[in-house]
Amino acid sequence: MALVLVVRSEELGIGYEHDEGVAWVVEDLDLEVEHGVVTCLIGESGCGKSTIGNAISGLLPPYARTYGRLVVADRVVIDGDKMNFTGVRGKVVVRIAQDPASALNPYLTIGEQLSTAIRTHFPGLSEHDVRSKALELLSDVMLGEDVYDRYPHQLSGGMKRRAAIALALAPEPEVIVADEPTSALDAYLKYAVASLLKKLQREWELTLVFITHDVSIARYICDQVVVVYAGRIVEEGASPRCLESPSHPYLELLLKALPKRFSKDRLADIPGMPPRPGMYPTGCKFHPRCPYVFERCRQEEPPIIKAGDRLVRCWRYYEQSLT
Amino acid sequence: MITINYILKRAILSLVLILGVISLTFIAMNFIPGDPAFVWAGKPRGPGAAVAIESAREYLGLDLPLHVRLATYLYRFFTGDWGISVRFKQPVLSIVVRSFTASLELVLYSFAIATPLAIWLGTKAAVSRGGTVDRVIYYVSTVLAGSPRFLLAGLLYLVLYMVNYNYLGLRLDPAYSVLRGPTGFATIDTLILGRLDAFADALLRLIPPALAISTYPLGVLVRVVRVTLSEAFEEEYVRQAASLGLARKVIVRKYAFPNILPVTSQLSGLMFTYMLIDAMVVENVFSREGLGEAVAKAVVSSDYPLLIGATVFVAIVLIVVNTVADIVQAAVDPRVRL
Amino acid sequence: MSSLPLRSTIEDITSLLTRTWRKRPGFRVSLIIMIVLFTVAALGPYIAPYPRQGLGVEIDVTNALLPPSPKHILGTDSLGRDVLSRVLFALGRGLYQSLVVVAVSLVLGIVVGSFTALAPRSIEAVVSYVIELLLALPSILLAALLAILLGGTATSITVALIVTWFPWYARVSYLQARGLRELDFVRIPLYYGLSRAYVVVKHIGPNILAPMIVEALSDMGSVVLEISSITFLFGIGIGSFEEPDLGMMVANGLRDLVRAPWVFTAPAAILALIAIVFTVFGEAVYEEHHPILRRRWWLWF
Known about the structure:
By secondary structure, chain A is α/β, with parallel strands linked by helices. Chain A has eleven helices and 14 strands.
């Protein structure tokens, strides 16, 4: 079965320059994102998933350093230490930020922001057509026509969120990278926004890269799961099965930490803290917090082990798969 | 977002401040050692001195109780009776207004020169961001803004004199002095009267001093625009705009730019004070008529009523200008709620 | 307990200054020039070649308007006085006057601002109002007024400038003190009945003073300029024509600008130097304190 890969990376490394050198946040990443599918990047804060998202959408700051390759929609955007995102931003990939309020320009009405985005990517359209496209976008995210002439500060939080999504869709991209779009929302809104994104993804045949630390939302929305830890992929697989029977200890613990039904929402609770970039432990990066750790884990970093459509980076799994 | 409420509040505050300034001058006059009548009459000496002092005493009503005098004093100010100038023998208010408009013209033209230029340069500096263009613009603007205005004016005068620039000194060539327009602004009046030759003359005489004065707002605004834009580039919605693939020009213009307006308008109000002082000094260098000349003459002849009038007038203008600037700033910033 | 925040503030300031020294050449240059200026000003009366002319007690009309020569390094002015000596004396006077204005304004401003922050609401409102009032007065006109009232001397300019400058410091101090007044080391002494004066002097004052010193130093440059603008315009502020003052010298020099440009240029150049150096000094520290470019980077979109 030939997969169309919209995003593909080969041994991609991303780091940030600082006074004493480079802190590598992402190392040797081989990411594959399939077209038309919702892929979730799961991980705790600081594991590098946002960096990956920024890399895909072309929003790496100028003090970022790279190596390896990143290909988005058949365009090589990162090649070694060079980055070239011309023609990719907007047309191919758009990022949705975590906080919708700050993502909207406070000085322009929603309509003006939508029109500007539309005009940039569809230059031939008449003013009338631009306006109708904008109104269409608003109705797609279930916002009324009156929002067109409103300023962001006149909208509620939920409306701002939806306006930001409409804005992201304006250039009609192929890929949407949503960086923690539900993190700051209450339990009800979380699922509402996630459903909206999923609905739009299906309607527009988008590829959605959904970055989150919330495993329950991931379970709700995604088709493909990619678990990131310390800048590496530690597990990857198709959604329902992967999340029901995790192979990597990290994912296992994340799922165990999920609240039971009808109990209050809570962040995942795993002992210890994720390591900071530049201070990664030797061997398997997860070994200090792993309940199944053994000697080999401390010495060597496990390679990615492929089993069917599942990828796991764990010595324990390796041992198990041998038997 | 501005509301009538806000404007009203600011207006009342301004009024109260103006009352305060006028009262302050009253206090200054009456509570400093010396005879207020003597001072008000302009410290006269020689024949006619006694008469002058006596009429001043009557005018001020020094034998009346303090609160009556203060009330009269305030009343006079609000009805336009600001006394008679000792030196010019004319009503103080008319002299002050006339001189002030001359200086105001200079200040306004300086603003007109400095502001667009500063915005352009500041944007270039911010976009270049640490590059050579940025550094050059920054250092030049710092030096320019820091140099004393009369120095620049003197140098400019010298240079123009050397090249036989004929438009130095006075606001208008004496040949045109019969022209009198409604506004008191030489450039506008000559236009209204349809005399383009006089207009050109007035303009050419105005530009050198205006240039000298404009260095201050230029220097300040360039740096402010540069900083504000640089900070604006860090904003999340600018990143979002970049993510949407908007062109750099568009992002700078529509997203980063509006951040400048509130700061610029607020600063303009503050800079006005210093520009006025600069104008008074630079006028002197270029031998132009204006508030500086009037005040200098007033000091020499101890013309106290004129000075009080000038102080109150300028203070009122400054209060009004700053209030307007604050209101404009609030109007321009859609995020400010009042 | 009381000195802890103070010590940390002083530490912050010293580290800021050392950092600025290390990283910004402009700061180093301007600081050195400032020290040179102050030294020259202090030594002025002793190194001036013609001290009596510099002071103004002697004139030599036969040698008026001589161009620069080995005998008179910067030439002579319209009364035959050696320009170099005049400038040296004027520099000392100018810096001294500016120092007085800034120091007094600073102390007055901090005291007024801090007291107002600790005062009951009604007094707070009144004092804020008065401060706004004073900020609306232009210094030149106030100086002119005082010159008439007090008889034009250097004092009237100094007083006028103090009156128009201290409100700036007062406003800043007031805002800072408002931030501090909720902290323990202010509330506790007050609670125990120690007088407000004590709290202001020992606790609030030093904490506010430290960050403002650098700014005050930079302001000295502006004050010198303001003073010279006033003396330039009126020729007042100095009791007589004889005493050396940079602004007056520039005004006099203007008269003979074409014939004898050195009379104008020397004091004007000194003023320009003072202006630029003090500004660069202040700007360097400010930029270091609030850097807009934390790393060298270009606009990435």
